[in-house]
Amino acid sequence: MNRNPGAPSSDHPFADAQHGGSPVNVEQPGYRPRVADRELRERLTWAGAVVIEGPRACGKTWTARRIAESGVLLDVDDQARQLARLEPGEVLAGPTPRLIDEWQLEPHLWNHVRHAVDDRQAKGQFILTGSAVPPADFTRHSGAGRFSRLRLRPMSLFELGHATGSVSLCSVLAGEPVPGCESRLHTRDLAQLICVGGWPAHLRASPGEALRANRDYLAEVSRVDVERVNGVRHDPNRVQRLMQSLARNVATYASIATMAADVGGSDARLMPHTARHYLTALERLMLIEDQPPWAPHLRSRSRLRSSPKRHFVDPSLAAAALRADPDYLMRDISWFGFLFESMAVRDLRVYAQATDASVYQYRDNTGLEVDAVVDAGPGRWAAFEVKLGTSRIDAAARTLRRFADRVDISRCGEPAALGVIVHSGYGYTRPDGVAVIPVGSLGP
């Protein structure tokens, strides 16, 4: 990897790579390795620039700084932002990979990075990080081989150190049998992990501190961030109520009209187009990530449903929206189950991305539903049901077998695996071929 194009002279204002008092490419005490670390290094070998996208506070900057040789942090360095407007080329000059943190604050830099990649004709030149997606006009000129987008989400249980990873999703998709395993994740511990979430800043925080921080996070989103990305005035209270409705409907197929009615209540009607406007802002902030439907070729005449499932990017945000704590989850087992499903989907997304797969869900007109389908191509797909507790394993296994019978294997290939993800206990493969997988054993 060429690390020198554009390197400044020793008297260059960014030569020491310490803008805003934050050096790059330094050892970070307490840093937990991320599944995306290797993916970032690999992408830098074949793309001119890598764009790391993800919600605020998910760890994008720390991940990038472990690899970057120099950089600017635009959200803390006012001088760098001023220089970006006056002399963008000066901000891009420095040892590579060059980190441009929160680049969307000066979105015109996109085209300057693009031209710099073209001019240098070298890979691994820039790492751009951003916690909001700017309007499409700023990024419509990309070019194959110039930019590669890497999604970073809050940390999975494996990254947090609460899962062993003995059941590798990559191996499962390759058709390897699920090994015998055991994970003893107590129900109350799971409730705490859901409420605290996968935010790196919470690694050293107490549960109470993490819960308060999550609530403050959403309050800031409703007051400031939604208006920042949309550029129009809004009602923060309605944004908060919409997030509360999302929380009540997490891991369901709730429609925009349903949530708008839920938000409005009897005294403050919210129009569906306004709810859609707020949801778009939350999507651009990458705080919500709907789970799209899987559309396989079917052998039956069942008709697929096209509605997505609703998810926050981390289930802790759903808990924070309703000011729930672990005790509340223990009293509302039904909602706890939906949050557990959302956590499992979060983790599957982290692991699936590492093996170039995507996570979907399935529902058809007969009422058959499957919680998660991980698809990496024909013959490399797996379907999972997510169940809190073990009493529903048999029913979940029957659902998965029915689903597999409906998929046209001549076009999609045989499933690499069918599995029931549970919160605790033993992992094994049943006589019907369905695997039982504790979430604390799952990994990349």
Textual characterization of the structure:
There is one protein chain. Helix 9 crosses helix 13 (about 315-320), helix 10 (about 235-250) packs across helix 11 (about 255-265) and helix 13 (about 315-320) packs antiparallel against helix 15 (about 335-355). The chain contains 17 helices and 14 strands. The protein is of the alpha/beta class. The chain is about 40% helix and about 15% strand. The strands form three sheets. A seven-stranded mixed beta sheet has the order 7-12-13-11-10-9-8, with helices on both faces. A five-stranded parallel beta sheet has the order 2-3-4-1-5, sandwiched between helices. A two-stranded parallel sheet has the order 6-14. The two termini are about 25 Å apart. Helix 5 links the parallel strand 3 and strand 4.
List the helices and strands and how they pair.
Elements: H1 36-44, E1 49-53, H2 60-65, E2 70-73, H3 78-86, H4 88-92, E3 98-101, H5 109-120, E4 126-130, E5 147-151, H6 157-160, E6 167-168, H7 169-173, E7 181-183, H8 187-196, H9 207-230, H10 236-248, H11 256-264, H12 272-284, H13 315-321, H14 326-331, H15 333-354, E8 358-363, E9 369-375, E10 381-387, H16 393-406, H17 409-412, E11 417-422, E12 425-429, E13 435-438, E14 442-443
Parallel strand pairs: 1-4, 1-5, 2-3, 3-4, 6-14, 10-11, 11-13
Antiparallel strand pairs: 7-12, 8-9, 9-10, 12-13
Helix pairs in contact: 8-13, 9-10, 9-12, 9-13, 10-11, 10-13, 11-12, 13-15
